[in-house]
Amino acid sequence: MPPPASHHHRTHSLLLIQRLLSLPPAASPFTLILDSLEQSGKPLIQEYIWRANVSKTRVIYLAHSTLNLPRGIDVLIPARRKDLPALQADIAHATAAPGGQKLLILPTLHPLLSPSLPTFLSALLTPHTALLALFHTDVPLPTTPYVPAPLPLLRYLATTILTTHSLAQTLARHRATARALPAPAFGLAEEVAGVVVGMGANDARGTVLEVEYRRRSGRGVGGWFFLPAGGGEVRLLEECEGWEEEGREGEGKREEREAEGGTWEVGLTERQRRDREGVVLPYLDAQREGGGGGGRILYDMGVEDDFDEEEDEI
Q1: pLDDT tens digit string along 7-34?
Q2: Contact 164, 34 (CB under 8 A)
Q3: Are strands 220-228 and 102-106 parallel, antiparallel or unpaired?
Q4: Coil, strand or helix: which one is 135?
Q5: Which residues pair with 134 in a beta bridge?
Q6: CA nearest 170: which of 208, 143, 135, 124?
Q7: What is the mean pLDDT of residues 93-108?
Q8: Which of 98, 106, 198, 281 could form a disulfide with 187 if both were Cys (CB 3.0 to 4.6 A apart)?
Q9: Are 163 and 209 in contact (CB under 8 A)?
Q10: Distance of CA 219 to CAs 130, 215, 249, Å?
């Protein structure tokens, strides 16, 4: 979970997420969204389209199905039953149109998965075109020997990685961390027969974003943010309603347990302090100046003892 942010860190983080959501090609040529059954990435794609329409950016949408298309699309490219070379030709024709910046959206990468996917994605990037792709992390994929898995390969190619999380589940994990408890599992991670989607999935209040941005130098910058549903101002996760309350609730429980007294109490009460001062330690009287009546060691010699006066004087 993210640590509390200072004023400088807060300003820098908000400027970064605003720039990434505006998606200029120079800032992030390839943005990868990782979603799951617990939190869909479609609200985030709709946010990108809305911001592109505001900035007069041409939106090109590659659709494998024509159902429930998002609003604000300028060019729709049907991708059903087309191979990668045919799709690349259609995309090149759409991006070659005169105009300003363009936003190319791939709503799902799973139909395009193949050994030639990196080459296909690299060919789509131009100085005036930004690529936005969505990958479902819960979909099982077959493994091929001597071929890298798609997800690590996409992580390597992307300049910005946005992972979506459910707000309710994130708050539940934060509550467990504040109470020093194991983080709860949701959905498929519960490993319970018949459970596919966990409690609190796809929270209607908004989407939690885990951001990883890679600069040109290779250094990564990250952060946690909250995107309200229906559009709104993006803010830091620790500024989200309910985050501070959960943390204060955990601290209040801990202070209450400390006030009640527990097994780890190391202080002494007034009665225990008086009892300790009244204890007489062994040989304490003999250590005083002039000696005392206690603490002497008496030895009675027996017949078998060989007493030597010279040794006694030494």
Answers
A1: 788 888 888 888 888 877 778 899 999 9
A2: yes
A3: unpaired
A4: strand
A5: 33
A6: 208
A7: 88
A8: 198
A9: yes
A10: 21, 6, 36
Residue type, 177: T
- Give the separation between CA 155 and CA 151, rounded to whole angstroms: 6
Phi and psi at residue 27, in whole multiples of 5°? -80, -45
Smallest Cα–Cα separation from 18: which of 8, 28, 7?
28
d(CA 96, CA 78): 17
Amino acid at 7: H
| pLDDT per residue as tens digits for the range 109-168 | 999 998 889 999 998 888 889 999 999 999 888 888 888 889 999 999 999 999 999 999
Model pLDDT for residues 254-274, shown as the tens digit of each residue: 555 555 555 555 677 788 888
Strand, helix or coil for residue 289: coil
Q: What is the DSSP letter of 301?
A: -
Task: Read off the pLDDT of residues 272-281 as tens digits, 9 standing for 90 and up.
Answer: 888 888 777 6
Arithmetic mean of pLDDT, 28-56: 92
